[in-house]
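FAQ
Q: What does a multi-component entry look like?
A: The components come first, one per line:
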Amino acid sequence: MAQAADSIRFILNDTEVAVSEVAPTATLLDFLRLERRLTGTKEGCAEGDCGACTVLVGRLAKDGQGGERLVYESVNACIRFVGSLNATHVVTVEHLAAKDGTLHPVQQAMVDLHGSQCGFCTPGFVMSLYGLWLTNDNPSRAAIEKALQGNLCRCTGYEPIVRAAEAAAREHPSAIFDPIMRTREAVTARLKALQPQETIVVGKGEDCLIVPADAASLATVLSEHPTATIVAGATDVGLWVTKQMRTLNPAVFINGIAELQRIDRTEAGLTIGAGVSYTAAFDALSSAYPAFGRLIDRIGGEQVRNMGTIGGNIANGSPIGDSPPPLIVLGAAVTLGSKDGTRTLPLEDFFIAYGRQDRKPGEFVESIFVPALHGDHFAAYKLSKRRDEDISALLGAFRVALDENNHVRTALIAYGGMAATPKRAKAAEAALIGQRWSEETIRAAQAALDTDYQPINDWRATSAYRMLAAKNLLMRFFLESTGEKAQLRRFEEVA
Amino acid sequence: MDKSTFEEQTTIAGPMHTRLRHDSAHKHVAGTADYIDDMPEPAGTLHGALGLTDRAHAEILEMDLSAVAALPGVVCVLTASDMPHSNDISPSHLHDEPVLADGRVQFHGQPAFAVIAETRDIARRAARLAKITYRDLPHLIDVTDAMAQGGELVTQPLTLQRGDAEAELERATRRLKGQMRIGGQEHFYLEGHIALAIPGEDDEMAVWSSTQHPSEIQHMVAHVLGVPSNAVTVNVRRMGGGFGGKETQGNQFAALAAVAARKLRRAVKFRPDRDDDMMATGKRHDFLVDYDVGFDDEGRIHAVHANYAARCGYSSDLSGPVTDRALFHADSSYFYPHVKLTSQPLKTNTVSNTAYRGFGGPQGMVGAERIIEEIAYALGKDPLEIRKLNFYGEKGSGRDVTPYHQKIEDNIIHRIVGELETSADYQARRAAIIDFNKSSRVIRKGIALTPVKFGISFTMTAFNQAGALVHIYQDGSVHLNHGGTEMGQGLYTKVAQVLADSFQIDIDRVKITATTTGKVPNTSATAASSGSDLNGMAAFDAARQIKDRLVAFAAERWQTTAERVTFVANHVKIGEELVPFADFIRQAYMARIQLSAAGFYKTPKIHWDRATGRGTPFYYFAYGAAVSEVSIDTLTGEYLVDRVDVLHDVGRSLNPAIDLGQIEGGFVQGMGWLTTEELWWDEKGRLRTHAPSTYKIPLASDRPKIFNVRLADWSENAEKTIGRSKAVGEPPFMLPISVLEALSMAVASVADYRECPRLDTPATPERILMAVERLRRM
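Then the predicted structure of the entire assembly, as tokens:
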């Protein structure tokens, strides 16, 4: 394997950084606070849930016209590994105010509207608001709340922060003043130059981190290091490190691999590369399968969606991952790559048992293909204690095709949180197929769910709730298909 | 005479009663406000981590720490026997709280050792390498288990009694009994616990601690080290949130850091990981309330008998005063002609529960509002009607005596509720909602108006004292220090306003300095909403002392009378002459006038006799009310808070911007407690919701979609508090009881409002759905 590069190079605020001694598990947050003494970025939870460590990461992304454009996204520095930062621009709260101390409009609005009390979450909020401010100069309340889904504040009750977001949007200074806008061209050029032409290896033996330059290099790396941990968005692997104190020997960072970033839409369906973040996949998924868009808005917070990938959500194999149930009912197929080429299998078959997936050593998830809907009724409903940024207690995905006599031609139902893997409700499906699409038929299918699942009790829900709610979600699906209002929405529009 | 200046500026920037931003706001937003972990570390600083046990109740047979000590980078390992003088940090002085478990584990996650290492990462890794051998003992996790097994208490219970509740319950035309479970709450301050100990000469120890109670940290550190209090100085500039969670719970970290610092002669920092913090530190008490109420057909209460049982955890901590305060608020705003209230502070094998905003008061009030709901549903009436019927009467009405025999003399609840009922259009909206529910199958709505009356003062009378230290330097700049701590509530800002107002100087001439036991001694915790009442008055007193001296000086120097010396907009007016404040101070210095004073304040009028359950524990009451409207999904139990209207009493506000922030923030925090925040222990006694991934506090998208908050701007404190203001920290926390009751009404709609849904808390979607199901089957 060719390896000329041995350091991670990125821009930190206005300084270019080359890190050649860094552990595979080193987080951006520790790097900022301990190595650089940039203490404005706080640690609140070290698991990507509170947003106190929010920073912006700028990267070159495909613009859809064959070119690249510089995008800045909010991320959680606590679970962002330094190894994943090559060819990025990291912007921390210290970068916002002018050299003379003049606050950025986002900061000034937070001061003027009393958006801080204890102040500990505030730098993270400022960065999330800044990320919104850069991309939306007239944000709706829905858009503001979405941008703040990954930030917890325990003091203010959020109202003044939301008002600050609105006020800041009205204050757009000239591009010369804004620290990101004024350097956009120079940073773009610099990041282009920093794009790796070869695989980066930092460290020795198995105790190293590897950034493959392309998919072929990734396959090679995995054949040489079969125990390697593949890190895409690190929204789960990050916690293995910060909470379980696990080592990653080695860690292979795939977020920069261009081939894994593709989104291709054809009449047959949608192909999503394994490295595509939820945010990047949002437009394509929500236009092809609108219910999927609403679901994605409830996965993690903005920071997690900016980092986390659908590929990772699948490869991770969690029984409560949010994307597998809808993907299963949509008939998705997963393509695995390796040194020996690729193989494709139905996503449903990928999940073998709890914690076990059909992925051999040396293989990686390359892409997911989602067939087109062709007019079927489709919905996915997530239930959690808190509506946003929570893990599902259960999640139901439903798809039916009706014939001209209003009878069910095909029915696909899958739930997460009801079994050890994301799992189809085959008895319930059987109870629907061939029957008239009616409440009576739904009641029969609800009863069949008792044979499909024996859910567990845990801190997210009791078994009884899971079963009852699973049945009721099926009823919701029916009622919504007939046009009845059967779901609460805080905002009708999708932000 | 400097007349021109005077004409230009007749008012100062930042007096009392003005909207002023938080003193650190510009630093918060820039990331330049330093929290303890942001301070530059002394050279050679070491880092500690807790070694947690994994049994709920067990004897420790053997603790093999060899692998812990052997990890490269580990400097030392501390166990209970390493405490130089004492292993006891019981804040109740009942000697029931060890720094480190000594031979017996009493809750899952109790620390049994501490690792000190070169880096925090090494310390955390090493802490997982211990091999502890246990002999398991039976454990009690839940309140009902503890009651079934004899109900051992951690501290003395309280009884409040007036009249003859038992007899009147028998006599009442209607009577009903019920039970309610009220969940606990994790503080989730965004900045977790942290302590940094720096050893000094001889036996000196400087500690930086994220604490609401520096004096107690000082006492505990001195006690554990075996040194006098004068050897220990505790400092805190600001906390990243406290909410009661840093009243006593910082003791352990500070004590361990100090013990290690003394042993190793190096600075030592303890900053537990969020999960460790959530597992090893106390929370709000959960309660099981049994109530028995007698009332008439109109809905007027004749007698109440209730027992408030609380999960206190393994030790007393503050459970005594917390359960006391639950009883003090078990009347909410209602007159109980005959009443008997008992507390039951139960011992369980869980982390020792502690102070949390409201300090038992919210649980007391939630129980009372449930009783109102029961009566309303039993009679088929709007709960608001029952509320109004039972409110305390005006002073002298004969319906103004509390269960603790204090007369309520400042009652404004009728006016607050009346104004809010009108401004929020309660009656029309309730009618519209009942109408909506008739035709909507899946989505149902509810609305409720609930009152707040909260007693202000520490019920431990001695704690109602405070000190302040004020210096004026030769250039006229002012240095302010007081015993209160800043945790985001804006206390420092408010007290600075008091000084600016007293001296009539712009607030930017007042330097706010970090709280330290070296400047103001023997302070009380910044708690019980008392911060600005106590410290504001102490600072006012310090300013008064200095002003008295300055006035005497001016009268003598300018040959006039004291009455002709006044402080006006950055000047001192002496007779007809106007002297700029800085010039005047310079002259006072040259005349050898003492420009420094220690102020002091103690709350008047209050007394409390716990043994007889009689007294005047509260100086005054703060009032408020809220109307909440919600929608629920009867298929899933999911809900939305559609609209909230609040009218709240802060007396004459010292700072309306900060007070509104306390009300809005307190509301959302209280709403979280009653809705999505659930503490869940498994059968082994492990808390499984010990991180934000599993414990869900409200997000921006959970706050009321329409949120109208107003101050009762006509209100003035009847007592002589600072600027006639009222405390604001805790009272608004109870406003969202209206959310719980609105949810309850939406649930009740499925049984045509004939049954009280008896919705327990937290009202998660699961509890809502299960209540809907239960009512459907009735």
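Q: Is there any commentary attached?
A: Sometimes. For this entry: Chain A touches chain B through 90 residues (CB under 8 Å).
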